[in-house]
Amino acid sequence: MSMHTQAETAAPPIRIETFSVGPDTDTSADSPLAAWFEGVSFGFHEGRLEAEDLPRLAEAYAADGRILWGAYDDHPGPHAWNPRIPVATYGTMVNSLNVGGGRFLDAHLITAVTVRPTHRRRGLLRRMITADLQAAADRGHAIAALTASEATIYGRFGFGTATHTTSIEVDVRERFAVTAPPYGRMEVVEADAAVGLTQEVFAAFHARSPGSVGRQYAYARRSAGLWGEERPQPDKALRTAVHYDDDGTPDGFVSYSFAGWEKTPYTMRVKDLVAASEAAYLELWRYLGSLDLIERVTFGMAPVEDPLPWALTDRRCRVLTSDEDVLWLRILDPVAALGGRSYQHDGVLTLSVTDPLGHAAGTFELTAANGAGSVRTLDDGADPDIAMDVSALGSMYLGGVDARILAAAGRLTECSPGGVERAAQLFTAARAPYCITHF
Ligand SMILES: CC(=O)SCCNC(=O)CCNC(=O)[C@H](O)C(C)(C)COP(=O)(O)OP(=O)(O)OC[C@H]1O[C@@H](n2cnc3c(N)ncnc32)[C@H](O)[C@@H]1OP(=O)(O)O
User: Fold this and answer.
1) CA 291, CA 319: separation in Å to the nearest integer?
2) Residue 108 pLDDT grade (very low, low, confident, very high; cuts 50, 70, 90)
3) Which of 142, 165, 296, 412 could make a disulfide contact with 333, Cβ separation 3.0–4.6 Å?
4) Which of 89, 92, 113 has most ligand 1 atoms within 8 Å of its beta carbon, as the pocket-test mutant?
5) Is the CB of 162 under 6 A from ligand 1?
6) Could you confirm whether 439 is annotated as catalytic?
7) CATH 3.40.630.30 fits 3-141, yes or no
């Protein structure tokens, strides 16, 4: 474990340390890593750490290349909980973001953000995220990303919601039928084999899905049932089935568990459902609809642009229960970010961006031609076509929201006639961005 201490600020007297996890990291019950996990569990109202879980968690975090932050109160009150347990936690890793048109950027991912109630609203989150975003920008990352527990926290730091999913309930009784012609076959698979199979299917999904973020080490183990949601111990209720195409290539999988006989209508809960093609997506639903004794299937991460109702004999079998934001993006470098995505239309647009932390502030001229974008920074005072805050730029970046909607919401200002229309056209995505990774 490499460790270094960051500069101390005058008040509050909280020491912040960062460390990475590697093969030599101490995973004993009284190690700094164990204390860090205790801090995270406390922050998310989960149970105490089981010491036996630590080696597996360490292996996962090492594979992810995570950097962990802990904030320590060296002046605890009497009888305070173990002062080695951080009063605030924070973690980062890097993974691939599909930005459309077969292009990918390495995104700086932020996770495990907690501040103990006794230390909240004293600026600890601000202190960590401000330093971290600066360091990420200095390392050359164009984009930071996170999934948020509350929608009120991260806008002030320049993040904007960029992708959504929907929760659906599907009535799979007699009236359920998928109209598309069937192909390939489904197989219920062994948990050990499911790890590699789900990774293979996800890789194909990631390659074709704008908005997708690469998955961390634990994901495939959870989708296979080898790990549970909270502990790296088998989830014996979870089942995994894989769809193979006519050539025998896995092109979809679904992991699911039964809600129990006391819950009516009898319900199967989908934990993870990933398809490498629209056709495979429908095959997974055909399988779910064929589960005997089951009356309803629930899924919390369906795409916003969902072909399912259009593929059903009775479209009312699928009921939308909620809409959730998933990926929040924070543009750190507009030149690299806007130059990194692809464009459906040619055109020129000048954007003025404000940024409370300064990273993305400025006026930028975007020229899109033949699918690619090039960006140059203009001098202060250049006349923009549109003006917005960096959080609105993060929301618009993948095409998840139309510039006209942001303008209507007062989040984007038109500065030259036709500017909003041009922005709407330039930022249009071929399909709604879809992130099916929580981190
Ligand atoms: C990526 C992820 O991991 S998402 C998970 C986030 N974590 C959680 O939800 C766990 C429970 N909550 C917490 O642990 C804490 O309340 C946190 C991490 C959300 C906030 O930590 P704090 O140290 O209290 O935040 P900090 O004092 O730095 O606040 C910075 C600013 O954000 C505001 N703020 C912080 N949390 C919230 C919130 N939940 N809702 C609205 N505003 C908030 C503060 O008022 C402050 O505003 P100001 O700068 O205008 O004065």
Assistant:
1) 19
2) very high
3) 142
4) 113
5) no
6) yes
7) yes
- Is 195 a pocket residue for ligand 1 (Cβ < 6 Å)? no
**Per-residue pLDDT at 381:** 85
Q: Which of 121, 149, 326 to mutate to test the pocket of ligand 1 (most atoms within 8 A of CB)?
A: 121
Q: Is the CB of 110 under 6 A from ligand 1?
A: yes
Identify the pLDDT of residue 245: 98
Cα angle, residue 166 at apex, residues 148 and 154 outer, rounded to 5°: 15
Q: Which atom of ligand 1 is the closest one to the Cα of 113?
A: 3
**What's the CA-to-centroid distance between 112 and ligand 1, angstroms?**
12
Q: Whose CA is nearest to atom 36 of ligand 1?
A: 153
CATH number for the domain formed by residue range(s) 333-427: 3.30.1050.10
In this predicted model, what pLDDT tens digit does every residue of 175-186 receive, in sequence order? Answer: 999 999 999 999
Average pLDDT, the chain: 96
pLDDT score, position 9: 46
Q: Does residue 127 surpass a pLDDT of 60?
A: yes
- Spacing, Cα 86 to ligand 1 middle (Å): 16
CATH class held by domain 165-323: alpha beta
Decide whether any atom of ligand 1 lies within 6 Å of the 111 Cβ.
Answer: yes
Does the structure show a pLDDT above 90 at 221? yes
Q: For residue 113, how far is its CA from the centre of ligand 1 (angstroms)?
A: 9
Give ipTM to 2 decimals.
0.98
Residue whose C-alpha is closest to residue 230's, from 240, 221, 242, 239: 221
Residues of the chain with CATH 3.30.1050.10: 333-427
Question: What are the start and end residues of each CATH 3.40.630.30 domain in the chain?
Answer: 3-141, 165-323
15 forms bridges with which residues in the sheet?
Answer: 72
DSSP assignment of 349-374 equals: EEEEEE-TTSTT-EEEEEEEETTEEE
The per-residue pLDDT for 380 is 83
What average pLDDT does the segment 215-233 reach?
96
Structure-block tokens of residue 302: 């369906």
User: How many angstroms separate the CA atoms of 346 and 369, rounded?
Assistant: 5
Q: Give Cα separations from 157 to 94, 139, 401, 421 (angstroms).
A: 19, 18, 20, 28
